[in-house]
Write a structure and sequence with these properties.
The protein is mainly α. 65% of the residues lie in helices and 6% in strands. It contains eight helices and two strands. A two-stranded antiparallel sheet has the order 1-2. Helix 5 packs antiparallel against helix 6.
Amino acid sequence: MLQATAQKDSIAFNKERKNQLVKKIIIPTTLIVGGSLFSGSKSEINFQNTIRKGLGKGVTTSLDDYFRYAPMAELAIANVIGLKSKNHWFDQTKNLFIIDLASFVTVRSLKSMTKRSRPNNQYIYNSFPSGHTTLAFSNATMLYYEYKEHHPVFAYSGYAFAVATGTLRVLNDRHWVGDVLVGAGIGMLITHLVYKLEPLKNWNPFLQKKHVSFRPIINRDEFMVGINWRF
């Protein structure tokens, strides 16, 4: 009797987890499908032209080069100051590497296959999808997973930088709207899948280590995390 009840509870729990995942992937899937359909359409071109005309001389800023790394920097800073998170810092680093590697491979593959020219330069064929936006949304979604239970406001803050990154890619005329929508969807979807599958879940050689701290290093072209380990 107890075994049958336990089995029913386990089945119900697994069903609930699947339903939660389905709900989470609705938004990124919609962004990917909608952005793909919008990409290359007359509506997208007209929308882009309307934005450019409305801006007059246009917008020229490099803030999007920095904003894409902001959620990653927030993760590092949160570890430095000791905010309570879902996972140990090594598990976060592990997931971050897997997520960003999967995002990079996916984006580069799509860029190579689609060969879409950028709105500001018809001779550069790597517009679709937006790599900046993919990185920003993948890391913003990871920030959400790590801190939604203990620091919900902070957990959602990464999305502000992610949205700003995607918006500036369009305003800077570096990407079409479809590029940004698909990039956002890819970043979110990959992160949802990694946190669902939890690859290398039990591998953490630093779980019992102490005196380990982080130091974020940011410049225009890259974001790095320095690790200080006191013996």
